[in-house]
Amino acid sequence: MRRIALVMLLPLIAPAATSAGEPPRAPAQPLEAPARPLVRPAPVAPPQPATAPIRATTIERPVPVPNGSYLRTCRAPRATASMLHAECDAGREGRWIASSLPWPKCAGADISNRNGRLVCVTPVRANWGDAVLPPGSWFDSCWGSVEQGWLKARCKTGSGEVKVLGLTIEGEGTTPTALDLARCPDGSDIANIRGQLTCVAR
Fold it and tell me: Nearest 10 degrees: CA dihedral of 131, 137, 141, 147?
């Protein structure tokens, strides 16, 4: 009976059976959760100052220069679809002045040089007003303005003389002169003839 009792108790006190030749296994350790890496917050960029929007610039292409009497006394003309640029003779002391003009506004008018400035002038007509200078060859050797239908200018005499109160004296070669524009037929040329403004039929 004692042998039978010992045989029955052996499984309870002996270690768990293992396969032949293998040592007994260690008890399993409890699994630990992996450590989470520390996540640092992303740096926040400082606010940028507001900048003005970039505007696209338009470069105008060159076009053929328009016709006009200015070509006789201006040099280096160049034009775009909206502007005319040139260097024009100021008529005194050999000065040349850079000038610009929105030439499309001169439709039907002559583009002329007025004392170094590009201007639009309309054809000569009766009852001339004060707003615009009349065109003509007088621009080549005179400079002046229109007042109450009269063209008042100072013109070169071509002789190095100046006329003052009807007397001829040596001077800068210019003389004051005036012309009633109402007496000029339509389409006539206003010319400088020896220092005097004159209407010349074409």
Answer: -20
Same domain, 141 and 195: yes
pLDDT of residue 35: 64
φ/ψ of residue 114, rounded to 5: -115, 95
Among the ranges given (23-37, 44-58, 78-92, 136-150), the one the predictor scored with the smallest mean pLDDT:
23-37
Q: CA 50 → CA 22, 43, 57, distances in Å?
A: 77, 21, 21
Same domain, 112 and 152: no
Amino acid at 61: R
Strands 167-170, 161-164: pairing kind: antiparallel
- Same domain? 178 vs 196: yes
Beta strands in 90-188 (DSSP E): 96-101, 110-114, 117-121, 142-147, 150-156, 161-164, 167-170, 174-180
Cα 32 versus chain centre, distance? 74
Using one digit for the tens of pLDDT, what is the confidence trace for 127-156?
445 556 788 888 788 888 888 888 888 888
Q: Is 118 in contact with 84 (CB distance < 8 Å)?
A: yes
Q: Kindly report the length of the chain.
A: 202
Show the domain range for 65: 61-121
Q: Which amino acid is at 57?
A: T
